[in-house]
Design a protein that fits this description.
With about 160 residues, the protein is α+β, with helices and mostly antiparallel strands. The protein has 3 helices and 6 strands, in the order H-E-H-H-E-E-E-E-E. The protein has a 6-stranded antiparallel β-sheet with strand order 1-5-4-3-2-6.
């Protein structure tokens, strides 16, 4: 029963990881993204290692170690290439009156080039997954949205 539970848990984690790569949803917290990627790539060789005979067990532990190295290097390369990070919330413009959606103004630091700016509607699920889609502020219904103007300033910009 423990092996079946472990397989089910790994399938759920791998599906969630794959879901974020194939859709507009992304992990809101970076350590959750790293944990899910780590468990997705490391979980399969470890599961095989515990289900195999003792003679093949060392092979699967080597595969798990290799997956650990590839995952770690891949995540570090990804962090290096996206050194400035993705879009960061500068202000929350509107909050939906009935659910957890909000409209945010976000900026992305491009280094010496400047900043990308966008206004998006974000929806969070369980505080772990976040979906952002572009929105036109001119065409929103004020009966559904409440204007709040909360300044977050995740980029840490200094204003004059």
């Amino acid at each position: 029963m423990l092996k079946l539970t472990a397989w089910f848990l790994w399938i759920c984690i791998a599906s969630a990881t794959l879901f974020t790569y194939l859709s507009d949803w992304s992990f809101q917290v970076s350590w959750v993204r790293i944990l899910f990627n780590f468990l997705t790539y490391m979980g399969l060789p470890i599961l095989f290692a515990f289900q195999s005979s003792k003679t093949k067990r060392h092979l699967y532990f080597y595969l798990a170690f290799g997956a650990f190295l590839v995952t770690g290097i891949g995540l570090k390369v990804n962090d290096f290439l996206n050194w400035g990070g993705g879009y960061k919330v500068q202000s929350i413009e509107y909050i939906h009156r009935f659910d957890s959606r909000q409209i945010e103004f976000q900026m992305e630091d491009l280094g010496a080039i400047g900043y990308n700016k966008r206004t998006v509607e974000t929806d969070t699920w369980l505080g772990l997954l976040k979906k952002a889609s572009n929105v036109d502020i001119e065409n929103i219904s004020l009966s559904e949205w409440k204007k709040v103007d909360i300044h977050v300033n995740e980029l840490g910009l200094k204003f004059p």
